[in-house]
Amino acid sequence: MTVGIEKCNVHKFRHGQLQPLQEDTVAIERPVALIYNGVSHVVMMATPKDLNYFAIGFSLTENIIESVNEIYGIDIIDGEQGIEVHIELSSRRFMQLKEKRRNLTGRTGCGICGSQQIEQVCQFIPPLALSDKIQLSDFHQSLNYLTQVQMVGGQTGCTHAAVWLDLNGNFIAGFEDVGRHVALDKLLGYRAELQQKLNQNIKGIILVSSRASYEMVQKTARCGVEILFAVSAATSMAIEQAKQSQLTLVGFFRGTQGVIYSNGERIVE
């Protein structure tokens, strides 16, 4: 069975007719607590797979760490009420985390719910380099990759996806989750771990199956990715953040068409 799904009994009605009770497939959503050096930091609702990459990606995109090397270990404990992901940080990083620690509960619809101060949301990100160049014609098959990585979504219609493509449009990796932010964190965590193993910066773009909201842009830019494609629209704050961080933001991406909101100079066509 695919990890991340379960069965339930439902009644379906079609063309005004109620059908007999039958078995259906739904995506699993569970509370996932990220615990740093024994101290619970955040609880997010997520699909219970690829949680090691989620832990790394969240730690990077929330500026808890700057490098994967600052994580010494990750242990995942599955309990009755939820899943605990224990992350062992370096002493220096944990001390910094305690100083700025916030207590929030994440939801699948909003990645910054519970932030206590405006400053926690509106954070400055140094402008990205303008080094990457792409041709849109190389990405005409990209939407197929979103479907390819949605094993749970394909059976339930209930997940978002984030995929990593090289600058020529070739697929590298992709992840899904009931939460769009969590799917992106998983992908960024995977990319960071791969870069550490290869000891090099991996060029490419990110494509997400959702809208491009402020926090999606912020997470992408914070990890040094220069180009973000979104299947849906971009919000005003997302566009503002993309311009400030010099990220190329494209919305309503359909493989052969889209809307360029910022820094279109990376698209050579």
From TrEMBL:
Where is this chain's protein located in or outside the cell?
Cytoplasm
Q: What is its main location?
A: cytoplasm
UniProtKB keywords: Cytoplasm, Molybdenum cofactor biosynthesis, Transferase
Q: Which InterPro entries match?
A: Cytidine_deaminase-like (IPR016193), FdhD (IPR003786)
An example GO CC term for this entry is:
cytoplasm
- Gene Ontology biological process terms, A to Z: Mo-molybdopterin cofactor biosynthetic process
Q: Give the residues annotated as active site.
A: 110 (cysteine persulfide intermediate)
Any single GO molecular-function term of the entry would be: sulfur carrier activity
What's this protein's family per the entry? Belongs to the FdhD family.
Report the protein's function.
Required for formate dehydrogenase (FDH) activity. Acts as a sulfur carrier protein that transfers sulfur from IscS to the molybdenum cofactor prior to its insertion into FDH.
Question: Which NCBIfam families did the record assign?
Answer: fdhD_narQ
Q: What is this protein called?
A: Sulfur carrier protein FdhD
Organism phylogeny:
Bacteria, Pseudomonadati, Pseudomonadota, Gammaproteobacteria, Orbales
